[in-house]
Write a structure and sequence with these properties.
The structure holds two protein chains of two kinds. By secondary structure, chain A is an alpha/beta fold. Chain A has twelve helices and twelve strands. In chain A, strands 6-7-8-3-9-10-12-11 form an eight-stranded mixed β-sheet, sandwiched between helices. In chain A, strands 2-1-4-5 form a four-stranded antiparallel β-sheet, with helices on one face. In chain A, helix 4 crosses helix 5 and helix 4 (about 115-125) runs parallel beside helix 6. The longest helix of chain A has 18 residues, at about 190-205. Chain A is globular and about 65 Å long. An eight-stranded mixed β-sheet of chain B has the order 6-7-8-3-9-10-12-11, with helices on both faces. In chain B, strands 2-1-4-5 form a four-stranded antiparallel β-sheet. Chain B is about 30% helix and about 25% strand. By secondary structure, chain B is of the alpha/beta class. Chain B has helices spanning about 50-60, 85-90, 115-125, 130-140, 150, 160-175, 190-210, 220-225, 245-250, 255-260, 330-335, and strands at about 5-20, 25-35, 40-45, 65-75, 80, 95-100, 180-185, 210-215, 230-235, 235-240, 310, 315. Chain B has two domains: about 1-95 and about 175-280, Rossmann fold, CATH 3.40.50.300; about 105-175, no CATH class. The chains are: A alpha/beta, B alpha/beta. Chains A and B meet through helix 1, helix 6, helix 7, helix 8 and helix 10 of A and helix 6, helix 7, helix 8, helix 9 and helix 10 of B. The complex binds adenosine-5'-triphosphate (2 copies), iron/sulfur cluster (2 copies) and magnesium ion (MG) (2 copies). One adenosine-5'-triphosphate (ATP) sits at the interface of chains A and B.
Chain lengths: ~350, ~325
C-alpha cells in the first residue's frame, strides 16, 4: 500500500544532549530521543504528539540536521542525509523546511518581513525585484496578512503574526517536507482554520508532506493521516489517526485523550485522571518508559522488561505488555471520554 | 465569585496606539474592565486584536513604538500609567507580575534557570541564600517540572519549549504578587501539563486571593480557569460575561462564531468555517468593527458605532442586534 521509497525515513534515531551546564555537578542526560523510527510519504501528514519534554522538537531538529545524532539514520528519498545541515546540498536544504516552535528565536529582529521572506525567495527560487515582492505579498496573503506587513520588523508584530511570518518563510522555499513544530499554538481558531486550509491545499496541489507536532489533539484528529505518540523520547504507539484515536489505546494515549478539555456548554472539567500515578522519573534504562505513571500497570514485568511492539492492522503498533485485545476490552467502556453536549455525532471516518 | 471582593485592577478607557507611516494607529480602543481579588478574568480574541498590548499596559510597560493615548490602569488605587519608571520597577514582580507570550526571550540565556528564579526571590527580598534555593526548587516543582533539580541547573537553551515556559511561570509567581498577568501561558503545552498549570493557578487564586488577567485565544483553557471572560475584536472589548454565561448564552455574533469554530475531537471541522475571512485592520468600518465578517450585519452596522451595553447581570455586549439574535447560537450550532 505504501510506496517503496518514502519521502522521509527516520530509522532508529537516538539523540543524547551532551555537556552539563558546568555548574556544581555535571548532568548526565538520558537520551532525549531513543530508538525512534517512522516514515512519511509525499502528500502525507504524520502527527507527533506527546507531553512537554518528550522529544518532539528534538526529532524535528534532528531531521533538519540541527542537532547531533548519536545513532540512527535520516533518509530523504532513500538518500542518507543524517549529517548536520551544513553538509547538505542547497537542494536538500530547500526540500526540508522547519517552522520553529518559538518564532521569536528564528526571525532576525533586525530584518523587515520583506527581507526575511526575500532570503528563501532569492536563494531557492531565484526571484528578484518586482517578482520577488509579488511572491512575498502572495505568501503573506496565504497566512492572512496584508502587504502593509512587508515593512514591519518582528518586534512590531503580535505573537500570532510572527508565527505566520515564520510559516510563510518556510513555504517560500517550496519544500517537499514541512516540519511544523507547534505552528498553530499562537493562533486563534479562525486563523488556525485558514492555515489548516492552506496546508491542505498545498498538500493537494504539490504533494507537500508534513511532520506535524502539536499538543492540540482536536486538530491532529482531523488533519493528520497517521500519528506517532511519544513518551520520554520513545514512540509508544503509532498508526493511522482513526486507529490511534480509538481503542485499543496504549495506556499513555488513553491518558492523553482523556485529558482533552471539552467545550461542554459552559463547565469544562477535564478528568483529573490526567495526573494520576505521577510517579518519579524513570531511573533505569530497562522496562517500560511509562511504568512509573501507568494506571494500567500489570506488575514487575513492566519495570523489568521493555514491552514489545504489537503490530495491529494497517501499521498500527502499540508498545505494551498488555495484549491489544485485552486493552481494547478494558478501554471501550468507562475510559472513553463522554461526547460533549452539542457534538452531533461521533464520527470514526 | 464574591462580588464584595475588592477590585485589584481597574482599567478604564484604555486606548493604546502604535506609530505607523500614517501617524498613531490605535490598536486598543476604550478598553474598560475590572479584576477583583481572587478573580480570574479571561481576555480572548483573534491574533492581532490587541491582547498583548492590553497585557503590557497593566504593568505600565510600553512596547517600542507604542503610546497610551488615554485611560487609567489602577492597581488597587494607584494609576500605573502615571507612575515613574523607578516606582514601576519595584512594583513589577512584587505586586503585579507578568508571564509574557514569548517565554524564551524573557529568560537570560547565560544564567541557569534556577538562578533566575532565585534572583526574583532575592530582588524582592522574599528569601536569600539556601532558603531562596529551596524555594526556587519548590516553585519549579509546582509548575510541573518533574526533575526540578535538573531543571534548576540547566540553561534555558537546554530546556524544551514547554519547560522554558514553565520556568517563566515560576518566576512570575515567585514573589506571590497580588495581580498576575498571563499572556498565553499554556499555549503549546500538552493537555496534561496545561491541566497542572491551571490547577496551580486556581490554587493560588483560592488560597491567596491572587487576581489574574489570563490572556489567551484558547477558549478551552479559558473555560477551565476564568471566572469571567472579556472577548476582544479589533482592539475593542465586544462582550463580557461570567464564563458559564458566555459559553451557554453568548450574545455578540463574534463570540458566537468564535465558539462555533473551536475544533473538537468528536466531530470534523465544518467545511464552511463559522468565522469567515480574517481581521483586516486596514479595512475597519467606522461603525461596528465586526461588520465586514458578521453573518448578521445590516447595512447600518458598518456606520453605527457600537458600545458595550448591559444586557444581563454582569453581562455586556457591543451589538445593537443582540436582542433579535437571541438563541442564534443554537441555530448556528445545530444547523445540519
Ligand atoms: N540543548 C539541550 N541540552 C540538554 N537537554 C536538552 C537540550 N534541548 C532539549 N533538552 C531536553 O531534551 C528533552 C526533549 O526536549 P524537546 O525540546 O525535544 O521536547 P518537546 O517534546 O519538544 O517539548 P515541548 O512540548 O515542551 O516543546 C527535554 O527534557 C529537554 O529538557
Ligand atoms: N510596534 C508595533 N508597531 C506597529 N504595530 C504593532 C506593533 N506592535 C503590535 N502591533 C500591531 O498591533 C496589533 C495588536 O498586537 P498585539 O500583540 O496586542 O496582538 P495580540 O492580540 O496579542 O495577538 P496574538 O494573539 O497574535 O499575540 C497587531 O495587529 C500588531 O500587528
Ligand atoms: S507495559 Fe506496563 S507500564 Fe508500560 S504501558 Fe503497558 S501496562 Fe503500562
Ligand atoms: S452590530 Fe451589526 S455587524 Fe456588528 S456584530 Fe452586531 S449585527 Fe454584527
Ligand atoms: Mg518542543
Ligand atoms: Mg499576543
Amino acid at each position: 500500500m505504501r510506496p517503496e521509497r518514502p519521502l522521509l525515513a527516520v530509522d532508529d534515531l537516538v539523540v543524547v544532549y551532551r555537556g552539563g551546564p558546568g555548574w556544581l555537578w555535571p548532568i548526565r542526560h538520558a537520551p532525549a530521543v531513543n530508538g525512534v523510527s517512522f516514515e512519511i510519504s509525499s502528500g502525507e501528514t504524520l502527527a507527533l504528539v506527546g507531553e512537554s519534554g518528550s522529544g518532539k522538537s528534538t526529532i524535528a531538529r534532528a531531521v533538519e540536521g540541527l542537532v547531533r545524532i548519536c545513532s540512527g539514520a535520516v533518509r530523504l528519498h532513500g538518500e542518507n542525509v543524517t549529517g548536520p545541515v551544513r553538509g547538505r546540498t542547497p537542494d536538500t536544504k530547500r526540500r526540508i523546511q522547519l517552522v520553529f516552535q518559538n518564532p521569536d528565536g528564528s526571525l532576525n529582529p533586525r530584518h523587515s518581513v520583506l527581507t526575511i521572506l526575500s532570503r528563501p525567495l532569492s536563494i531557492f527560487r531565484r526571484l528578484r525585484g518586482a517578482h520577488l515582492r509579488q511572491a512575498a505579498i502572495e505568501l503573506l496573503a496565504d497566512v492572512q496578512l496584508d502587504a502593509s506587513y512587508l515593512a514591519r520588523m518582528p518586534a512590531q508584530l503580535s505573537g500570532g503574526e510572527r508565527q505566520r511570518v515564520a510559516i510563510a518563510r518556510a513555504l517560500a522555499a517550496e519544500p517537499e517536507l514541512l516540519l511544523c513544530d507547534e505552528i498553530l499554538s499562537a493562533l486563534d481558531v479562525s486563523v488556525q482554520a485558514s492555515v489548516i486550509a492552506l496546508l491542505r491545499r498545498l498538500q493537494r496541489e504539490r504533494g507537500l508532506a508534513y511532520l506535524f507536532i502539536s499538543h492540540d489533539l482536536s486538530v491532529v484528529r482531523w488533519l493528520a493521516h497517521r500519528v506517532a505518540v511519544l513518551f520520554r523520547g520513545e514512540i509508544c504507539e503509532q498508526g493511522r489517526v482513526e486507529d490511534v484515536f480509538q481503542p485499543p489505546f496504549h495506556p499513555y494515549t488513553e491518558m492523553l485523550l482523556a485529558a482533552v478539555p471539552r467545550l461542554d456548554g459552559g463547565s469544562m472539567a477535564p478528568p483529573p485522571s490526567a495526573t494520576t500515578g505521577a510517579g518519579p522519573e524513570r531511573t533505569r534504562a530497562e522496562g517500560c518508559p511509562f511504568a512509573g505513571r501507568c494506571p494500567r500497570r500489570i506488575g514487575p514485568i513492566c519495570d523489568a522488561e521493555g514491552p514489545p511492539f504489537q503490530q495491529l492492522r494497517d501499521g498500527h503498533a502499540i508498545r505494551c505488555h498488555i495484549p491489544a485485545g485485552e486493552l481494547a476490552s478494558l478501554q471501550t467502556e468507562p475510559a472513553m471520554p463522554a461526547a460533549p453536549a452539542f457534538a452531533a455525532t461521533t464520527s470514526s471516518v | 465569585m464574591n462580588a464584595a471582593a475588592r477590585e485589584a485592577l481597574t482599567v478604564s478607557g484604555l486606548t493604546v496606539a502604535y506609530r505607523s507611516d500614517a501617524g498613531w494607529l490605535p490598536v486598543v480602543e476604550e478598553a474598560s474592565f475590572t479584576v477583583r481579588e481572587g478573580e480570574v478574568l479571561g481576555l480572548a480574541g483573534e491574533s492581532g486584536c490587541g491582547k498583548t498590548t492590553v497585557a503590557y499596559a497593566m504593568l505600565g510597560e510600553r512596547r517600542p513604538g507604542s503610546r497610551v493615548m488615554a485611560g487609567t490602569v489602577l492597581l488597587e488605587s494607584q494609576d500605573v500609567l502615571a507612575m515613574p519608571e523607578r516606582d514601576l520597577q519595584l512594583l513589577r514582580g512584587a505586586r503585579i507580575s507578568m508571564v509574557p507570550q514569548n517565554p524564551a526571550t524573557s529568560l537570560t540565556p547565560t544564567m541557569i534557570c534556577g538562578r533566575q528564579v532565585m534572583e526574583v526571590l532575592e530582588y524582592h527580598r522574599i528569601a536569600a541564600g539556601t532558603a531562596a534555593r529551596r524555594r526556587a526548587l519548590e516553585l519549579l516543582e509546582e509548575v510541573g517540572l518533574r526533575d526540578a533539580p535538573g531543571a534548576f541547573a540547566r540553561y534555558p537553551h537546554q530546556m524544551s519549549g514547554g519547560q522554558q515556559q514553565r520556568v517563566v511561570i515560576a518566576m512570575a509567581l515567585a514573589a506571590r504578587p497580588r495581580v498576575v498577568v498571563l499572556d498565553e501561558p499554556t499555549t503549546g503545552l500538552d493537555v496534561t501539563t496545561q491541566w497542572r498549570i491551571l490547577r496551580l493557578l486556581r490554587q493560588l487564586r483560592d488560597r491567596f486571593g491572587t487576581a489574574m488577567l489570563y490572556v489567551s485565544h484558547d477558549l478551552a483553557a479559558l473555560a477551565q480557569i476564568c471566572d469571567r471572560i472579556a472577548v476582544m475584536y479589533a482592539g475593542r472589548i465586544v462582550e463580557v460575561a461570567a464564563t458559564r454565561v458566555l459559553f451557554a448564552a453568548p450574545r455578540h455574533p463574534y463570540t458566537r462564531a468564535l465558539l462555533a469554530a473551536v475544533p473538537s475531537l468528536d466531530r470534523p471541522p465544518e467545511a464552511e468555517p463559522a468565522l469567515k475571512g480574517s481581521l483586516r485592520r486596514d479595512e475597519l468600518p467606522p461603525g461596528c468593527p465586526f461588520a465586514p465578517r458578521c453573518a448578521f450585519a445590516l447595512p447600518a452596522c458598518a456606520v453605527t458605532p457600537q458600545a458595550l451595553v448591559a444586557i444581563g447581570v454582569g453581562h455586556e455586549a457591543a451589538c445593537w442586534r443582540w436582542r433579535e439574535l437571541d438563541g442564534g447560537l443554537r441555530a448556528l450550532a445545530h444547523a445540519d
